[in-house]
Amino acid sequence: MTNTMIHPPTPPDTVTPEIVEDWSKPAAMAIPKEGFFKLEQGRYGPIYPKTPANHGFTIIAKIKPGTEQTIREYGTKIENTIKGLPDGLAVLQLHYLRWVLFDIGQDTYFMYQGIFDTDFDKYTEDAVALFTKYGINTVFENLEGFPMDWKTNTPAFLKFVRDHQRPSFLEYGEYPYVSAEEIKKALRLKAAFSNMLDQMQ
Amino acid sequence: MLELDDIQHILVTRTPALTGRYEFLTFRDTAGAQAWVAGILEKIRSASSVRTTVESDNRWVNVAFTWEGLRALGVDEVSLATFPEEFKQGMVARAEMLGDTGPNHPSCWVGDLASPHLHAIVILFARTAAEHTRCVTAHEELVAKIPGVERLSFLDLEATPPFDYAHDHFGYRDRLSQPVMKGTGEEPTPGSGAALEPGEFILGYPDENGPPAQQPQPEVLSRNGSYMAYRRMEEHVGKFRDFLREHGKNAEEQEFIAAKLMGRWRSGAPLVLAPEKDDPALGADAQRNNDFNYKKVDPLGYAVPLGSHCRRMNPRDTAANMNRRRMIRRGATYGPPLEEGAPEDGVERGIAAFVICASLIRQFEFAQNVWINDKNFHELGNERDPFIGLQDGTLEYKIPKRPIRKRITGLPAFTTVRGGAYFFLPGLKALRYLAGLGNAR
What we know:
The complex is a heterodimer of chains A (201) and B (441).
Chain A: E1 27-30, E2 55-62, H1 68-84, E3 94-104, E4 107-116, H2 124-134, H3 154-163, E5 170-173, H4 180-199
Antiparallel strand pairs in A: 1-5, 2-4, 3-4
Chain B: E1 19-27, H1 30-40, H2 47-53, E2 59-65, H3 67-72, H4 77-80, H5 85-93, H6 95-98, E3 120-126, H7 129-145, E4 149-158, H8 219-222, E5 226-235, H9 237-247, H10 251-262, H11 280-284, H12 309-313, E6 328-334, E7 350-357, H13 360-372, E8 396-399, E9 406-409, E10 415-425, H14 428-435
Antiparallel strand pairs in B: 1-3, 1-4, 2-3, 5-7, 5-10, 6-7, 8-9
Helix pairs in contact in B: 1-14
């Protein structure tokens, strides 16, 4: 029986830091080069730790020459999709997405940075299905090396994502470890209190 | 069109068995392996055959192979490489991700199930004890004739009394929520959702995402096949009853706690439809006992706690892509029942079950890794599935209740994984292909 995982990484020597999740105390975390402290396998490969800035990824890939405008147009496309369907991406438990294009020499690169609340390995097929539904991942077809059979080949899609993931070496949270749901709950509570106080005037 | 005459019946039909046995085999050489498949082939019925003979038959047989088993049968490396990564690795290599650590770790498993020499399983279901004995003897004779085949271990199965409905050793009614495939002619019970594309469970057919893709090769081997995750799960009945007594002052309160852990009363009645009091008639009524959802009726878990077993294993309308996460469950109980009021006797008893699906990583492993073992499922923070999640006594269980929820800390482990494996369940043509691989060369 083979014990080879899809990407066999070497566990780093670093010790996993003792974490006390306290939202009231801003926190920073330095992360080893591999992106994790202790090798822990998820379904599709190593799992990246939760940091003061929660879970997330930074995917950087070279774009196919001449596709810059097409990629930029996705900005408007996604904007309109979300206008029509504000909870369309709810499954991803996102805080923020940032899409950036930048040049190195003659080449243009695409950076897709997301901050969310679940480790990507867990809901990975749900994410792929959602990308498919809203046409988000067709933007990836403009990236070099992206598997063109991604619609039917989830493992190949995930391999591309993992191969192009650049783990952070530092992450910081001003209100660390708090989920988007908790933030929304707090704001809803605040709104409810304001409303209550208004009613009492 | 579903080729029911080529699909092993376990995928489609249940049989009226009260007893049975799983035998685990290893193949010492290819010739022996092929001779064994050829020898048992005629005993294995297709789904369509069982439909017409189920009333007159007394025993039902299925066979399946590990990836190493397919290699031992002579499947070539090119073909072996086309199987999905998780199946190649096997359940042992996936242990950490599946939550099989601590007392559930493969190093503690019994019956040589963690051995790389585990190659095949024979599943026998029988109507009577006499038929059970007859079949076991017949199989022993077959194995004795073939020098290249050896039995690693076996597990005898027994239904737990009372026999008029299926239930586990903890007393919960089972087989309540099963997906139905298009093309089988079966009607899903109310609340079970529409019939699903057969490719969710059987290789070679369209699935909920579209036409079949990434199927193992050659087609004759994969078509009408499926994957089975086997789990042998010991149920600590004495410990479970002690827990109920500790948290419930009387029988009524204990039943309530038992229902809150499951999401259903032990009668099968769902808490969404019977939140305060058990309703055994509802539990037994297939037209009503699965007809509910969570999102609108019970979003905060006042009826069914967010972390209950039912809610984790089938979140219904509170999870995305549910149609891509469904699984067919088969199996049986083993070990003697522990009489009510009797102290824990230390005898192993439990469930030996199969999860059948077209993608182990997307269906079985997802359920195991996320629904069962994600501590933060539904933002619960510090919980795992109260029955089959990895429990080490440090986790809790929250029962929402107005005005203040009940929080149980230090939940014990009510089950222990005693074995498991990933098998490929070939179609009948594929079995003939496997039996004849030697001749083809």
